[in-house]
Each structure stands twice: as structure tokens, then as C-alpha cells.
Amino acid sequence: MAPEAASGDRRALRALEEGRRFESYAEHHTREMRPCFLCERVIYRRIPIKKIGNRWICLDCLRALKEALETLDRWEHLSHLEGSAVHVSPPPDRP
Hints:
By secondary structure, this protein is of the alpha+beta class. The chain contains 3 helices and 4 strands. A hairpin with a 6-residue loop joins strand 1 (34-35) and strand 2 (42-43).
């Protein structure tokens, strides 16, 4: 057997071994992975995640939800103003 073929076989075996190691790692840590129910990203350790009821929400979505709830009174005020505004047609163009 030529030395190039032997080194290619070793690389292939090393790649297979690394692939199996990764699969084993992924299967082991799948229990710790949680999908965010708003953005549907799978979260694992690096991004904080909180359980609300029986669903999980990531920190990014929780911040966006908090901001939306804090500005809800402004939205209601603007929608009230838009609803009570009298729509006036613009004046006709003069030649």
C-alpha cells in the first residue's frame, strides 16, 4: 500500500471518529436544548431562557415582549387619536 493511500485512510477514519463523537455529544445534550416558542430558535446554555407556563422563551424575545407591553398605553392613545381624527380631503390643485 502506498503511503498516500494510508494517510488518506487515516484521515477518513479520523473524520468518521469525529463525526461519531459529535453525534454522541449532540444526543447527550439534546435534553438541555429548548426551542423558543416565539422565534423558534433552539437555545442551549449561551442564551438565557425562561419557562412561562409550559413553554420556553429566550431572553431576546422576552425583552421585545416587555418593551411592547411597556409601550402599550402609547399604542392605545395613538389608535384612539387616529380613530377620533376627522378625515378631511385635501384641497383641489389649482392650475
